[in-house]
Specification:
7-stranded antiparallel sheet; single chain; 334 residues; HTH_AraC-typ_CS; Arc Repressor Mutant, subunit A; transcription regulation; AraC_XylS_family_regulators; Jelly Rolls; transcription; 11 helices; alpha+beta
């Protein structure tokens, strides 16, 4: 398995999908397929003007869509689970409720959503917005690497940020440009190397823009700084999560003995190196199944790509972590 091509390589190829429709069910299915399965769209009042427009680009762990409905709708989404999300209106005002907090998002302020907690949206017909989905593992890995310290998952992000001044303005402009370039057939962002760099800027830019408790003054949730030995092992696992690492190999990468590395991981990560690697792989499989078409992939090939060679043990571990089977996760994308 060491020499196999990792799952990240094809994800740098951008995908562009668009839809215009007056059919509510068709619009709902489009959003469920490209964003989240547990999403419901309910027209409010007179829906004769319903005219959905969705123009979505997907680039690895980042999905950006320009979305509007043309008439007032109510949108409800259960726990996102696998992603963080930002809604940034281009026109109109969106009323958002998430985890007990109400946010009025407009051209001056974006709404932010964590993986846990239902989302309730009052979406007026005049509201057109950028919907930005970033896979949970990608944002958490970026913040973890930037801070070089233990973080709490899911991230305790602020519920909104400013789009007029500061980093929020820059991040929103970057997202708009990325979306426009990927929608164009001949844009520079369609070159895989450029696309990958742009993708990384969107992820790292959000980590630097949104509020979180990992600033200069920790809010009691910040773990101890991780030593370089632990960081080296983590970097190796994130670079090649499908590789069949042994504890001895990871200790060699870290430059310490096996017992020292295991003790350091228990102290600074909260679990053993191989337990961390297993969780990393499971999260990778879950994210890929959650965004894949059931008729294009099967569970076993995704599991093998992420380094699972014993499908029975993999299925049991997956169910223990997510509460459902891998095949159920894939079927929910229909």
């Amino acid at each position: 398995m060491d020499g196999m091509v990792g799952p990240a390589a094809p994800l740098d190829i951008p995908v562009h999908v668009a839809l215009r429709t007056r059919d509510v069910g068709e619009a709902r299915a489009f959003c469920q397929k490209l964003f989240y399965g547990p999403l419901q769209v309910t027209p409010v009042g007179d829906c004769s003007g319903f005219a959905f427009f969705g123009d979505v680009v997907m680039l690895g762990p980042v999905t950006v869509g320009e979305i509007s409905y043309g008439s007032d709708v109510h949108v409800n989404i259960a726990d996102l689970e696998t992603a963080y999300h930002v809604l940034a209106p281009i026109t109109g005002t969106l009323r958002s409720r998430h985890r007990g907090t109400t946010v009025l998002a407009d051209q001056t302020r974006a709404a932010v959503y964590r993986p846990i907690g239902a989302i309730d949206l009052d979406w007026p017909g005049d509201c057109r917005l950028l919907s930005v989905k970033i896979e949970r593992a990608a944002l958490e890995r970026e913040l973890d690497a930037a801070l070089d310290q233990r973080i709490v998952s899911p991230l305790l992000l602020g519920e909104s940020f400013d789009l007029v001044d500061g980093p929020g303005r820059t991040w929103a402009a970057l997202v708009r440009l990325l979306h426009a370039e990927l929608c164009a057939e001949d844009g520079l962002a369609r070159e895989p190397r450029m696309a990958a760099r742009w993708r990384d800027m969107v992820v790292s830019g959000l980590a630097l823009t949104v509020e979180h408790p990992y600033g200069d003054e920790p809010a009691g949730l910040q773990g101890p700084r991780r030593p370089r030995t632990v960081k080296r092992a983590l970097d190796a696992m994130h670079a090649e999560p499908w590789r069949q690492f042994t504890a001895t190999e990871l200790a060699a990468v870290a430059g310490v003995g096996v017992r020292v590395l295991q003790e350091s991981f228990r102290q600074h990560v909260g679990q053993s190196p191989l337990a961390y690697l297993k969780r990393l792989r499971l999260d990778g499989v879950h994210a890929e199944l959650s965004r894949s078409d059931p008729w294009q992939v099967n569970v076993s090939e995704v599991a093998y790509r992420w380094g699972f060679t014993h499908l029975g043990r993999f299925a049991g571990a997956y169910r223990n972590r997510y509460g459902i089977s891998p095949s159920q996760t894939l079927r929910e994308r229909r």
